[in-house]
Design brief:
Helices cover 18% and strands 21% of the residues. The chain has three helices and ten strands. Strand 9 and strand 10 form a beta hairpin. The chain is globular. The protein is of the alpha+beta class and 218 residues long. A four-stranded antiparallel beta sheet has the order 1-2-5-6, with helices on one face. A four-stranded antiparallel beta sheet has the order 3-4-7-8, with no helix packed on it.
Length: 218
């Protein structure tokens, strides 16, 4: 039986993600179970690298090193853009507290030729603060911080998603990949900390220690 254009596109996206995973030490993914030989429509994408988050009722901005995004390719895909849901905490101008993601112009002018691996590159660039828009934010506090802060070097992670090709992937002792889960990892007891106070950025400096870097308020 001849496959529909949508099914062929889903297969192409799966192959593109598998290739991307081989080219990246940052990205991994799980797929939802499908019937028979049908290609997956839903993915849990995991990025392992530095991003920022802030707990509720706190002014401390912390480093987080695991991020999970659910991507569902609906019945109208690729004519319509995928459904995105951020599942781990993140502090970003263009991602709401409930996990809604704004992809800029793609939100209203989706381009069907944008493949799933290219979308993942965009999401990683958002995580590491290489891609953000402070003029039309979903999170105004994050936009204000990104626009005014002078303490943190952006992007917070210098690696491109295809870091293996770029020669920036860390050495690995074991080629086997660890199991992936959509459950947020436990944060370190004393992560890197940044501070904001209302609409003012408080100057800080990094002081090295034997265990981790701590930012002290000046």
């Amino acid at each position: 039986m001849r496959e529909s254009p949508r099914i062929r596109r889903l297969r192409t996206d799966l192959k593109a993600l598998e290739k991307l995973r081989e080219e990246s030490s940052i990205l991994d993914f799980e797929v939802a179970r499908t019937t028979h030989d049908a290609p997956p429509e839903s993915y849990a994408i995991t990025f392992r690298g530095k991003g920022l988050w802030r707990a509720d009722s706190s002014t401390d901005i912390l480093i987080r090193e695991q991020h999970v995004v659910h991507i569902h390719l609906g019945a109208a895909y690729p004519r319509m853009m995928p459904d995105l849901a951020w599942k781990t905490p993140i502090f970003h101008p263009n991602i709401s507290g409930s996990g809604v993601v704004c992809l800029g112009g793609y939100g209203t002018h989706w381009v069907p030729s944008l493949n799933l691996d290219e979308l993942c590159v965009m999401l990683w660039d958002m995580i590491r603060y290489k891609n953000f828009d402070v003029e039309s934010p979903y999170n105004r506090e994050a936009a204000l911080w990104a626009k005014t802060q002078r303490v943190v070097h952006l992007p917070v992670d210098d690696r491109p998603l295809r870091d293996r090709i770029a020669g920036m992937a860390p050495a690995r002792q074991d080629a086997a990949r660890p199991p992936i889960t959509a459950v947020p990892v436990k944060e370190p007891a004393m992560p890197d900390v940044l501070f904001i106070d209302g609409e003012e950025v408080v100057e800080a400096e990094v002081v090295g220690s034997s265990n981790e870097d701590i930012l002290f308020i000046d």
